TrEMBL record:
Protein name in UniProt: DUF1349 domain-containing protein
A Pfam family: DUF1349
SUPFAM superfamilies given in the database record: Concanavalin A-like lectins/glucanases (SSF49899)
Alphabetized PANTHER family for the sequence: REGULATION OF ENOLASE PROTEIN 1 (PTHR35332)
InterPro entries registered for this protein in UniProt: ConA-like_dom_sf, DUF1349
Length: 204
């Protein structure tokens, strides 16, 4: 049974956001899409296993208060190791969640990285999503951040349930990174905000 989610009712203009680390290029297309080129060796990661801290990816961020949900849509057209795009939810440099699709070991992977000083990472292959519009949804309610995603009009998939301090001020929005190359260009097709999800699981 699919959970019934209320679509965010307010489209967000790209001008509503502020860049955390500006991209190489960001320009609005003829249909209102935002075309973003990420710089080479950009990423978000803290310490775990790899030992480094990377905090230089481009992200266009707006407030995400408790009680709100946000969706970001983009076209999945990646090719190089660790090419990635989706939603970044950020409290500060040591507290954040990124969720979306990333190329890992030759496959497109739906996943999330939840970070509280140390990052942890989970992925699930989505080989059939290539070339399609992907939407990632983050919903903030109480002490939790719920992450869901889908391709086109398919059913929503639960990606992650992560803790988030209800007193924390968070911002969120589209991000992309290219840890291993230059020239990654991502077409973001939508950015929307509305009320938080009312349930974690389907009823009945």
């Amino acid at each position: 049974m699919e959970i019934d989610l209320v679509p965010p009712s307010e489209p967000l203009d790209w001008a509503r956001g502020a860049w955390l680390h500006p991209p190489v290029r960001a320009e609005e297309g003829p249909a209102g899409e935002l075309v973003v080129e990420a710089g080479a060796e950009t990423d978000f990661w803290r310490r775990t296993s790899y030992g480094f801290v990377h905090d230089n990816g481009p992200a266009l961020l707006a407030p995400l208060p408790v009680g709100a949900a946000m969706e970001v849509s983009f076209i999945l057209d990646f090719s190089a190791q660790f090419d990635q795009a989706g939603v970044l939810v950020r409290v500060d440099e040591g507290t954040w969640v990124k969720a979306g699709v990333e190329v890992s070991d030759g496959e497109s992977q739906l996943g999330a990285v939840a970070t509280r000083e140390f990052s942890d990472w989970s992925v699930s292959p989505v080989p059939g999503w290539a070339g399609q519009e992907v939407t990632v949804r983050v919903s903030r309610a109480g002490d939790a951040l719920t992450v869901r995603a889908r391709v086109a009009d398919a059913a929503w998939r639960l990606v992650r349930l992560a803790p988030m301090d209800p007193a924390a001020e968070a911002v969120a929005g589209p991000f992309c990174c290219a840890p291993t190359r230059a020239g990654l260009t991502v077409v973001f097709t939508g950015w929307r905000q509305g009320p938080a999800d009312t349930a974690l699981h389907p009823e009945g």
